[in-house]
Design brief:
By secondary structure, the chain is α/β, with parallel strands linked by helices. Strand 2 and strand 3 form a beta hairpin. It is globular, with a radius of gyration of 24 Å.
């Protein structure tokens, strides 16, 4: 049985807007959920900004009188721009949502030559990601035909692509939004050395991330379990994360270089987590997705602020 992928029905509006704008070509990201049963859901097509597509060679060759096969036509994509876009977007997505792959909107004749470049995009985006990006979606600018291909797991070749059934349909009734607030407390020394300070901050943030992963989720006073489904709970789903006793004290990375410490500062803040979960997920699995969304939040939002604040304070 061929793998299947469902696109949200709202994508039809995006496709219609592309046709009306008479855009020659567009490349971007497929954002959605990976299902446990192998069926993925694409929620959004996200165009990559400032990603020029060279269609000049295609237009020149197609305008010649002599007959040419589609394999002779060329297409130059901004591979590095799409990869950078994918990595940045992946780090900011809520739990349960990931970059599933890339799409290309353009003439049918350009798709064969674009496949290799799009596989290079998948390689760059999937590097270091927990959920592999493995889908290519070709959208015909002439016939509106949607052709989806999926790359086999563990392969890095365009030859390992196979057809993936792609259909548009409603997805909103099947998903829920889960949110939480997590109180984070970190104690850090005030140091003159930026390098030493960075080491302390990294260790403290890593310890706090571990506390988040060890925490227990509670929804409306009910512990999240593997025996209860998301659809069985009253909406909205607001989760309280309860840290284990070993994480109830301010986190501090200690070292033997106490002589360089001129003081200590206690940092407290609230992290907001969000996850897109399936109503058929268990509460335990849904809370795990919510925890995943909090760890990148610490690094991308808290770490730069902590470093800047402490460095400025140390100069006073």
């Amino acid at each position: 049985m061929a793998p299947a992928c469902q696109g949200d029905e709202s994508l039809e509006q995006h496709l219609q807007a592309l046709l009306q704008s008479r855009t020659d070509a567009q490349v971007g990201l497929l954002i959605g959920r990976s299902g446990n049963n192998g069926r993925n859901t694409v929620l959004v097509w996200l165009p990559t900004p400032h990603a020029p597509i060279d269609l000049q060679s295609v237009e020149d060759k197609s305008s010649r009188k002599q007959k040419r096969s589609p394999q002779d036509m060329q297409l130059e994509l901004a591979v590095e721009s799409v990869v950078e876009h994918g990595v940045q977007v992946a780090a900011m997505l809520p739990g349960g949502v990931s970059v599933l792959g890339v799409y290309l909107y353009g003439p049918d004749a350009a798709f064969p030559k674009a496949t290799h470049q799009m596989c290079q995009m998948l390689d760059g985006i999937a590097y270091g990601a927990t959920t592999p990006a493995d889908k290519l979606l070709f959208i015909s600018s002439k016939s509106r035909r949607l052709l989806c291909k999926q790359r086999s797991a563990g392969t890095a070749s365009s030859a390992a692509l196979h057809i993936c059934e792609f259909k548009l349909g409603p997805t909103s009734p099947n998903i829920s939004i889960m949110t939480c607030r997590y109180q984070a407390t970190i104690t850090l020394p005030i140091l003159d050395s930026a390098q030493q300070l960075s080491t302390h901050v990294e260790a403290a943030v890593a310890a706090e991330s571990q506390c988040i992963q060890q925490s227990i989720g509670s929804i409306h006073g009910v512990p999240a379990s593997s025996n209860t489904l998301v659809q069985d709970m009253q909406q909205p789903l607001v989760v309280e994360l309860l840290s284990p006793p070993t994480c109830c004290f301010p986190t501090e990375h200690r070292s033997t270089e106490e002589a360089s410490v001129s003081g200590r500062v206690l940092l407290e803040g609230v992290l907001h987590g969000r996850a897109v979960v399936s109503k058929k997920d268990t509460l335990a699995a849904a809370v795990d997705l919510l925890k995943v969304s909090l760890s990148p939040t610490i690094w991308w939002q808290v770490f730069p602020c902590i470093m800047l604040g402490l460095l400025l304070y140390s100069k006073l």
